[in-house]
Amino acid sequence: MIEVILVSLLIGVSVSIAESFQYPYTRIDDQVDDFFGTPVADPYRWLEVVDSEETLTWINAQNDLTFGYLETIPIREAIGIRYTELMNYQRYSMLLHRGPYNFFYLNDGLQEHSVYYCQDTLGGEPVVLIDPNMFPEEENLSLAGTSISKDGKLIAWATSESGSDWRTWHVREVDTGIDLDDTVMWSKMSGASWNSENTGFYYSRYDEPVECEEYEAINHYHKLYFHELGTTQDQDVLIYERPDKPEWMIFAGVTEDEHYLIIYVYDANSVEKNGFFYIDLNSDDRQIIELLNDFDASYYPIGNIGEDFYFFTNLDAPRGRIISIDISEPSRENWRTLVPEVEDILKEATILNDSSLVLTYTRDAYSLVKIYSSDGVFESEIELPCPGTVWGFGGLQSDTETFYIFSSFLYPGKIYRYDFETCESTLFWEPEIDADLAGYVTEQVFYESYDGILIPMFLVYPEDIELDGSHPTLLEGYGGFSVMITPRFRIETVVWLEMGGIFALPCIRGGGEYGEEWHLAGIKENRQDVYDDFICAAEYLITNGYTSTPKLAITGGSNGGTLVAACLNQRPDLFGAVLPSMGVMDLLRFHLFTIAWAWTSEYGDPDDPDEFEFLYELSPYHNIEEGIEYPAVLVTTADHDDRVVPGHSFKYAARLQSVQAGDAPVLIRIQTSAGHGGSVGLSETIQKLADKLAFLSEVLDIMVGPVNWP
Questions:
Q1: Pairwise CA distance, residues 670 & 634, whole Å
Q2: Which of 29, 235, 557, 637 has most Cβ atoms within 10 angstroms of its Cβ?
């Protein structure tokens, strides 16, 4: 198998065998690497250099082909129009209360970017604080983060250029809207946390990258700094670094009582494990105390009451529990379990109402919310509208009210206000969407994977469906990094349903739907189980008459893009179309770029001879074979993606085009001046998703949309 792949990679041609498509010329090199005695060809290595003249020419040629094809699809324009109609509704974020103000994002409907507002009372007149729509168009900036000082007088706000993960922080006065002179650059994987005096903030950054390598160079040595207002960045104080730990990522925040600076340390070599340090800001020496430095579990701090620190942890509890540690008596025999592990999966935890623990659980990927006292005594459960997903419950520990959003596939996200005094939820805001959702239903089924494990899957479809195998079906997956797949409302799902489609979303291994055990069951050498779970989902849909191979499309983004590309390699006969977006396609070189070294604990380490073996067997780029009639494929990526660098998708698409033995198109859509989100503004997002559905309408032979479509 390996020898066949090696030879075929070296002799691949640059023109498709399919007569209907003349793919752009793609140079083939004789690059061969030696991995522990195994020769591995990489003929498209040159495509990793995104900004080279040759690669830019290739990008333009590929986009010319792709958009030329998409423009011929009759329903493409109508899909875009319908998507735009559905997106034209007000969208509010959760409210944040600081000082005398409430802060929130609001999009009036079709604004390119949501606007950040403040108001002095609930329901009061909103005042624009930051409007990203007014940023200079030529700079291609987006608002990428905000942090409000505790007194509500200052906001640190971050911009991102072309969707990059790099952040530049600025500071604005809330009352006047005037920006201070402060600018902090090269922050990544970081927020901003204000000090107690509101005279500056803590943030994390990497060293400034070499010019022209900002979007590809590996990021090591995360450092924690403090920026004092009114000073330049070169005067920022280095708070913490670990030159001996290049793969540590360091995050910090000031506790609500302003007594401690907590330092959260993530080690990429430890799956779901971290350290927790702190500084007593009232002490004279301000030494760093390593409270938790064994890296034996995950410890997510949720707050403190005096010297008692509260953590959400999976230590001896893969489904999660709440513990408290008295930092004056920190030895493990003094730790207290406040809320023990239960059958449900603990997802989020906050402290509100002075001492109430608000815990969000999932049960078979549906949300539950329970409230406990700070001593771990159950008090109440918040009643939710229907099976779905809830998030929010933010605020200060002293707040006696909080807000949350509830959503499901057919339940647009509504904001609720919860009052701790009355223990009641009231509807605060609901969207008005131009769609009739009454004719659709959501069903959860459980299907068997290859080894007998039951996998839950959500299905959304027209209520009058006949199981005759004729329905276009979009099967989406992720399966990694402990990410929970839960029901949420998305406009693209509505458009797909209106096109007569079925939407399917399985909760495969590698995710967090059943706790850390479920996650670990899908990492490294177990990753094939993730792919088998997804393939079995497709087979279930076909066997039970929901769809058939010519009508079945699979899609996924980021880690989900890796998933669907690997499944395409393993079962090209099973799918009618495949949409891998921003996937990690080269599992032998992913760790050499930007922040991706942090994923070796999830995927495996190519520099380890044992882990190389299974990575090579699963790597999407390396397991494309000659002589296969692959189904229609539309790869999507962005040229400024500095999380999953676009070279992954470039190389994968080039290889797939070179060996395609059938007539189905293999195309790549490359968003320019965009990052891992795939777009910067709303219009780009609409067009990207419309293009995907238009592609599916063509290759799956979907004839018409609803009669009320243009």
A1: 10
A2: 637
> Could you report the per-residue pLDDT of 428-470, keeping only the tens digit for each?
999 999 999 999 999 999 999 999 999 999 999 999 999 999 9
641 is catalytic: yes
C-alpha pair distances (Å), 460 with each of 323, 446, 504: 39, 14, 7
Which tens digits make up the pLDDT trace of 677-692? 756 789 999 999 999 9
Catalytic residue among 182, 641, 642, 691: 641
pLDDT value for 704: 63
Whether the Cβ atoms of residue 657 and residue 12 lie closer than 8 Å to each other: no
Confidence at residue 132, expressed as pLDDT on a 0 to 100 scale: 96
Residue 153, strand partner residues: none
Contact criterion met (CB below 8 Å) for 308 and 325: yes
Q: Is residue 640 annotated as part of the catalytic site, yes or no?
A: no
Closest by Cα among 647, 648, 693, 638 to 670? 638
Contact predicate 84/686, CB 8 Å? yes
Q: Where are the alpha helices (DSSP H) in 71-165?
A: 76-87
Residue 88, CA distances (Å) to 6, 323, 432, 489, 694 in order: 51, 45, 9, 15, 20
From the list 199, 205, 206, the residue with the least C-alpha distance to 227 is 199
Within 8 A by CB and 6+ apart from 680, the residues are: 112, 140, 142, 162, 163, 673, 674
**Confidence category of residue 9, pLDDT binned at 50, 70, 90:** very low
The three-class DSSP label of residue 290 is strand
Q: What is the pLDDT of residue 1?
A: 33
Q: Is this structure's pTM higher than 0.70?
A: yes
Catalytic residue among 676, 679, 691, 697: 676
d(CA 223, CA 246) in angstroms, rounded, equals 10
Two tokens at 39? 């020769």
Res 73: pLDDT: 95
Average pLDDT over residues 237-266: 96
Greatest C-alpha distance within the chain: 76
d(CA 535, CA 84) in angstroms, rounded, equals: 33
Asked if 418 contacts 424 with a C-beta cutoff of 8 angstroms, the reply is yes
List the one residue out of 548, 547, 461 whose CA is nearest residue 497.
461
* CATH number assigned to the domain covering 62-84+435-587+619-699: 3.40.50.1820
The CA dihedral of 689, 691, 697, 698, to the nearest 10 degrees, is -160
Answer yes or no: 676 catalytic.
yes
* Cβ(40)–Cβ(33) below 8 Å: yes
Element (H, E) at 128: strand 127-130
For 394-423, letters b (16+ CB in 10 Å) and e give bbbbebebbbbbbbbbbbbbbbbbbebeee
With a CB cutoff of 8 Å and minimum separation 6, the contacts of 232 are none
3-state SS assignment for residue 269: coil
Q: Give 332-335's long-range contacts (Cβ < 8 A, gap of 24+).
A: none
Chain mean pLDDT for the chain:
94
| Whole-angstrom distance, CA of residue 487 vs CA of residue 508 | 14
What would you report as the CA-atom Rg of the chain, rounded to the nearest whole angstrom? 26
Q: Is 334 exposed, middle or buried (0-12, 13-18, 19+ CB in 10 A)?
A: exposed
DSSP secondary structure letter of residue 546: S
Q: Residue range 37-50: average pLDDT?
A: 97
Backbone angles phi, psi at 662, to 5 degrees: -105, -170
CB atoms within 10 A of CB 73: 18
Out of 367, 558, 601, 649, pick the active-site residue: 558
Residues paired with residue 445 on neighbouring β-strands, in sequence order? 457
Q: What is the DSSP letter of 333?
A: G
Using pLDDT thresholds of 50, 70 and 90, give the confidence band for residue 710.
low
Report yes or no: 671 and 685 within 8 Å, Cβ to Cβ: no
